[in-house]
Amino acid sequence: xxxxxxxxxxxxxxxxxxxxxxxxxxxxxxxxxxxxxxxxxxxxxxxxxxxxxxxxxxxxxxxxxxxxxxxxxxxxxxxxxxxxxxxxxxxxxxxxxxxxxxxxxxxxxxxxxxxxxxxxxxxxxxxxxxxxxxxxxxxxxxxxxxxxxxxxxxxxxxxxxxxxxxxxxxxxxxxxxxxxxxxxxxxxxxxxxxxxxxxxxxxxxxxxxxxxxxxxxxxxxxxxxxxxxxxxxxxxxxxxxxxxxxxxxxxxxxxxxxxxxxxxx
Length: 265
Fold this sequence. Notes:
Layout: E1 6-10, E2 15-20, H1 31-46, E3 52-57, H2 68-76, H3 79-97, E4 103-107, E5 110-112, H4 114-121, E6 124-128, E7 132-134, H5 148-155, H6 157-166, E8 169-171, H7 172-178, E9 183-185, H8 188-203, H9 207-221, H10 227-242, H11 244-254
Parallel strand pairs: 2-3, 3-4, 4-6, 5-7, 6-9
Antiparallel strand pairs: 1-2, 7-8
């Protein structure tokens, strides 16, 4: 029997550990992983014994974003199926951001595209100094539609425009300067220690007060897309995936060649 794509365990302190478990694909998202995360997040949110949610990735990377095989298949599907796939991803990310429980993202290795979205959607993000971040969609002819509300809220509009449009990679130190992550560690041992420190801080606070304060900050900050906005974001991503550029960018990736819009020196 195959290993589950999402691992879930709780400890006696009330910490729920959610681990994306596609290490051979750097925890890239396909529909099954998205559905697994959605279900697991719902279980943690509804469990009164859970006080903190920690999100992490198995293996060398946190998450490389969307599985490009799945992305190409969605772009080649009919529009309704394409939008349904995008809606699943958008809904899962919104539910992570709006979870009544405080959330911590623990990042090692790569956090690319959707991995940046997960990072930004969590209440606290911690990473190693050498972690690699990037919003790579435009180089594939698509767009960071689904993750945009969370990344904009984390790093601001001007920084987001730079990294959305250049798709540059940056390390944990730069991610910390931008506000995408809160603290960086030299190695994974220190990263685990920082995670425990944040967990301990959450556990000193009243669970109901934490829940209500988080809900208040979301309402005041208007950091989540409503249903209409979520549908628009999903539709924009679906159209980009099905576009000529989207299909060309993904094909170029798989064929290990430059996309048609890349000019030679």
